């Protein structure tokens, strides 16, 4: 080439490669370095085909092509062709080439960079490929809602060809109701162009297909170019139909569950109502003067009633547990006392079978905890009851101890070990199942429903605890359980001071009892009058409303299910339609219905609280104290520390020997000995306290208090229990000695009163 020609070519942004008639490269334009990154020199000319080729075969073919051209064996087409050329950095460029062969068989090719154009073509090809293969329908519409493009999937899904639905035909074919079509158009415009309203409420629509069927389509919208909008529709027909079936099945199940719940509620009411009378009047009779034989018979009667009530509760609780309707309480309670009460309740059954029932509470076990005493009692009653039922000789031992004590949490370990029939090895894994018993003839021989352990397992789980069983057939079983309890000493101490006071309270309340059952009327009236209450009785809701219009009451005890007018309606009238003063009277529901639904209905009607029949006298007393006015009781100071009420203003007893008498089987000689020993222990304790309080001897004071602590509960000295609990904590931590000194002096004052009572009791016993 001439020099001026070469200079001109060098200034062009094109790639030029020339060869001589031997096929050797003689020229590469400088643009090569800009485009491909290779510096033009003799080495590049020699290695050109190897450099730009992606494979060795490709390089050989290019060299062979040039060789054939230089020998005149290959004619070159004037048509452009495209190749992918390797750059120096390993990437590639798309080059469009045009070849020229001169007369002397020299070869020149000119290349232009088409990488951008090629990428667009490939992208366009892939876009079309995606649109053609995608399952979802794609529609592009103009601002007038005319369809200007549709994907092939429209025909596959609905049966319409693109010609059929172009323009406004889409709306005419797929929507029979044009009013609905217009609503959809307006919603689309508001969403796409004005961003006024969410499209969610019309995103799922039924679309008519070409064969007349309907399909559920879920649409997604986006704004396109040039005032167009794009609609992407997915067939969700199967999903919608499945949801409809599930909804129908859910409604059927809920209806069935409602029928079951109503049946259980009615059965509960019908059984609990007479049972309320049985247990209630038994309690009243037990408070009268009885011979030992009469007392034993009545206790057996009450025990049977409690067992029947437990069985009813088991059936109802299983239904609630299966429906996730059981609620767990978190209230302060005396764990030791609960354990004693459970064991005391089961003592008679053990005695009847002539087996030993022992309770071993490790001293490290916390006495007062936050938890659900009802559920703990239910679990233990089931486990101990089972152990006694399946043990014909030997013993049942209940062991309790602390296993973990952290900042705000304690974990208590319970073990119920028996020497009963045991469980065969292949049945151990199934004992916690519903209606499951160890052997097929177990129910026939020992009785029972097979529900107890299933309920225990579920309740333990709800309490965030664990339970497992070890057993050997013919040797016995060992149920091991851990339950966590929260700690809140202030709340616990305050609760037990209040509880101790209310148990000793004398009420002076005017109460309206709205109850249709004559037995329940008599039971409640007798109980309330013993607490010095004035009781008016109404036989139904209407009578109750009339009485409250004429008289003022401190509290209304309202039954739920009554003839003429039920408790709900009566409560609504009292709370909403009568005078402001009357509407403030607290109303407590007294009901045998125990479901959450019934509780909510009572509260929604305006009742202030509720109590389930049959109820314990303590439960009713606490509610009356909460909502009524107590006499002869000073109000407790709201203090972090325990404050003892002025003893000079009180005449109630300091001891409750009921538990002690039952434990000693009312044997006078044993009672006398126990009381004498306890008085001696109290004297020794007072001597130690008087001496060591002066020297601040923490260790001896702690040891002496710990020694006397179990007997405080045994002799029912409820006033002293929370004091001793607080005292033990402070002595353990060796802190706040001034308060320790105050607490010890208060204990000494109570001890003097206790000794006086015990000495009087000794005189009575010694004269029997």
From TrEMBL:
Gene3D superfamilies: 1.10.287.130, 3.40.50.2300, Histidine kinase-like ATPase, C-terminal domain (3.30.565.10), HPT domain (1.20.120.160), PAS domain (3.30.450.20). It is a multi-pass membrane protein. It is found in: Cell membrane. It comes from the Bacteria. It catalyses: ATP + protein L-histidine = ADP + protein N-phospho-L-histidine. Residues 740-768 form a coiled coil. Residues 130-169 form the PAS domain. The modification 4-aspartylphosphate is found at residue 559. InterPro entries: CheY-like_superfamily, HATPase_C_sf, HATPase_dom, His_kinase_dom, HisK_dim/P_dom, HisK_dim/P_sf, HPT_dom_sf, PAS. It is an enzyme of class 2 (transferase). The modification Phosphohistidine is found at residue 706. The keyword Phosphoprotein applies. PANTHER family: HYBRID SIGNAL TRANSDUCTION HISTIDINE KINASE J. This is Sensory/regulatory protein RpfC.
